[in-house]
Amino acid sequence: MSDADAAPLTFYDEVGGHDTFVRLVDAFYRGVAGDETLRAMYPEEDLGPAAERLRMFLEQYWGGPSTYGERRGHPRLRMRHAAFHIDPVARDRWLAHMRAALDEIALPPLHEATMWDYLQRAAYAMVNTFEPAGAGPARPVPGASLPLRTITERERG
């Protein structure tokens, strides 16, 4: 088999594969663990399962194994994050931790810029409210019905 017949390297391969994504996600979640705003969005006491999901997602997105899709189906990022209060503050905190993680793993400049561009676009796309945390109505739980109030005769006038 000649070099011309070999499959082209994916971004995943070019940046170092699995080990690089493990390092990136581990560095990111070290920051999240101490961030009161973001930590509140993770219902699990252990951030390990969330880290695994993010790592699998990023690996698949960048041309690595398709484990995320096999285990969880289509990413549906907006839907999966809809229950969380993701305002510009949360977005910016997420990006700050991801920026620190990217800096820590020190990818070559072109790879770093490519990944950072994607991460920024994804973070901006996840914003689902411009209300500050704690303001406005509580988000309904998917599948829960809204309470109904009966109008009295007096209110009907």
Oligomer: single chain
Largest sheet: none
Low-confidence stretches: 143-149
Give the termini separation.
86 Å
Number of helices, where a helix is a run of at least 4 consecutive DSSP H or I residues: 9
Q: What share of the residues does DSSP label as strand, in percent?
A: under 5%
Total beta strands: 0
Derived from helix and strand composition plus strand pairing, the structural class reads mainly alpha
N-to-C SSE series?
A: HHHHHHHHH
Radius of gyration: 20 Å
Mean pLDDT: 86
Principal-axis shape equals globular
Can you tell me about this structure?
The longest helix is centred in the middle third of the chain and has 18 residues, at 88-105. This protein has helices at 11-14, 18-33, 36-39, 48-61, 67-72, 77-81, 88-105, 109-126, 153-156. The chain has 157 residues and is mainly α. The radius of gyration is 20 Å and the shape is globular. The protein contains nine helices and no strands. Residues 143-149 have low confidence and may be disordered.
Could you write a compact summary of the structure shown?
This protein has 157 residues and is mostly helical.
SSE diagram, text form:
Layout: H1 11-14, H2 18-33, H3 36-39, H4 48-61, H5 67-72, H6 77-81, H7 88-105, H8 109-126, H9 153-156
What tags apply to this protein structure?
57% helix, 9 helices, mainly alpha
